[in-house]
Amino acid sequence: MAALYDEIAYYVEIKNDFDSGKKLLARMDAVYPKEELTLLAHILLGDDVELFKRERAPDEGSFPEREIPTKFKLYAATPNPFNPTTTISYDLPVDSHVRLIVYDILGHEIKRLMDEFKEQGKYSVLFDGSKLSSGIYLIIFEADHFTRVAKVMLIK
Q1: DSSP for 62-75, written as a single string
Q2: pLDDT tens for residues 20-49?
Q3: Quick one: which of 14, 15, 54, 47 has its CA closest to 28?
Q4: Over the range 2-36, which residues count as b (16 or more CB within 10 Å of their CB) and which as e?
Q5: Domain map (residue ranges) of the chain
Q6: How does pLDDT run across 58-98, given as a tens digit for each residue?
Q7: Which CATH number fits domain 54-154: 1.10.10.60, 3.10.620.30, 2.60.40.2550, 3.40.630.30?
Q8: Is this prediction's pTM over 0.70?
């Protein structure tokens, strides 16, 4: 599966051949429809899938002190594009184990921003890209059985 993803990334990023990338993605979808790399390949090809739509994060301080979210939510990173830091905000309606992982465009794990149990509530995490090169990075948010992906761009 990783080899297929790498081939898609090669066609899209190096050859700028989206048609070949989409053909390979169709094969990947048929064999690995719910795998993380398949989702990353959809993002790489710019697919507008409901899973990847994001909402703007609330302004700083707009969370009432005791407000408890009613649904899981990943907000758009702010600012985006960013240099060198961006903030990722999310809501947890129930106590959950939370994973926030940053991947490069080739699907390599770059950094684990969060991998721990959190109580229900509203949270923000700072992503520092000062030691990374310019480019597109994918942030995977997982909590309970909820998964969302955000695309961020680091510009130096």
Answers
A1: -S-TT---SS-EEB
A2: 888 888 888 888 777 777 777 777 777 654
A3: 47
A4: eebbebbbebbeeeeeeeebeebbeebeeebeeeb
A5: 2-50, 54-154
A6: 555 555 455 778 889 999 999 989 999 999 999 999 999 99
A7: 2.60.40.2550
A8: no
What's the rounded Cα separation, in Å, for the pair 88 and 136?
A: 15
Separation CA 96–CA 76 (nearest Å): 20
What value does the mean pLDDT of the chain take? 82
Distances (CA, A) of 75 to 71, 104, 140: 12, 19, 12
